[in-house]
Amino acid sequence: MKCAIVTGTSGMDGSILADKLLAKGYTVVGIDRWSPVGISPNLKDAIKNPNFILESGDITEEEFMRNMIIKYRPQYFYNMAAISLVPESFKIPMTVFKTNLLAVVNILECIKTHSPYTRFYQASTSEMLGDNTSTPQNTDSVMLPNSPYAISKLAAFHIVRAYRNAYGLFAVNGMLWNHTGERRGPTFVTRKITLHIVKQLNGVTTPLQIGNMDSYRDWGYANESCDAMILILESDVPDDYAVNTGEAHTVREFIEEAYRCAGIDIVWKGVGKDEKGYDMNGNVLVEVNEKYFRPVEVPYLKGDHSKIEKVLGWTPKTKFKDLVRLMIEADLK
User: Fold this and answer.
1) Domains present along the chain, CATH in parentheses
2) What's the pLDDT score for residue 1?
3) What is the pLDDT of residue 37?
4) Cis omega before residue 116 (within 30°)?
5) What angle do CA 279, 282, 284 make, to 5 degrees?
6) What is the DSSP string of 129-196?
7) Which value, in Å, is the radius of gyration of the alpha carbons in the chain?
8) Is the pLDDT confidence value at 167 over 90?
9) Are 279 and 266 contacting, i.e. CB atoms less than 8 angstroms apart?
10) Which segments of the chain does DSSP mark as H helices, in order?
11) Annotated catalytic sites, by residue?
């Protein structure tokens, strides 16, 4: 049986990958930090599968990761673990670099030394583009990262390329633009929005607290993004790919569409920090809160997926409005 290690397996992407790889008949070794609250609900299906092995540990522990690679010698290694919340990266930059960069270097070293035929996938991000608003954007675009998270990810992006070119490793980057879905964590803006709307539908009167609503994002469906990851790592030639929809929408549009899916039309009043969103009866449903503004914003992300479409045949299928609707419907259930 083919074996795949998936780090960060309890997260949205990691758990979806685990389910998809198990469905392909692989043995999947999920690596994640021990949690006092037990196994993540995202793993409720994987944990029932006899081909799924959950190993608790931290990718920043060099000896632990070395032991994992030697023990399993996987055909595939998906590194999905990261500290990925941008505002948080400004608070703990040293920890972010240790997790998002130094751990990657160690894993690549271990693969090079102990399991050189292991194929390595690095979860990369459009946040690396930062201040570059030229569109459409892809892996060859100018990178102007403006957060510790984005800078650490860009360094890891280049380390992967360096190990591929220097040592002949099958090491690749999947540069994903924003993607979301039913398993997205509640601290991320899309899930925060849909969860709060459902609470309001169930009687909660507290307004949704939101930061900058005018930044543009290229939102795709996580399930389809994970299909792209598998295609990238199982392709004939190692290379880096941009994964996105080629459409850009503001956070404001996401909020409006989410409320529309819940049967509510939003009316905006006020300007800047004083702006509020009201329903047709004059009830305040949305408020701007400075607490949720980033220290530095990434203003405009809109990707170009022509390379992965041409080479590997991947294309996004779920449109923006359908993505918002399926998230609202999932949270209503």
Assistant:
1) 3-180+222-246 (3.40.50.720)
2) 86
3) 82
4) no
5) 70
6) GBT---SSB-TTSPPB--SHHHHHHHHHHHHHHHHHHHH---EEEEEE--EE-TT--TTSHHHHHHHH
7) 20
8) yes
9) yes
10) 12-23, 62-72, 86-91, 93-97, 103-114, 148-167, 189-201, 222-233, 251-261, 306-312, 320-332
11) 125, 127, 149
Q: Distance (Å, rounded) from C-alpha 31 to C-alpha 58? A: 8
- Token pair 């944990």 is found at 47
pLDDT for position 295: 87
Backbone angles phi, psi at 49, to 5 degrees: -85, 125
Q: How many residues does the chain have?
A: 333
What amino acid occupies position 222? Answer: A
φ/ψ of 123, rounded to 5, equals -75, 105
The predicted pLDDT at position 111 comes to 98
Q: Which of 70-74, 168-172, 203-207 has the lowest mean pLDDT?
A: 203-207
**Model confidence at 201, in pLDDT bands (50, 70, 90)?**
very high
Tell me how far apart the alpha carbons of residues 269 and 191 are, in angstroms, rounded to a whole number: 24
In 3D space, the residue among 105, 99, 103 whose CA is nearest the CA of residue 171 turns out to be: 105
As a whole number of angstroms, the distance between CA 82 and CA 104 comes to: 10
* Lookup: tokens for 96: 């972010």
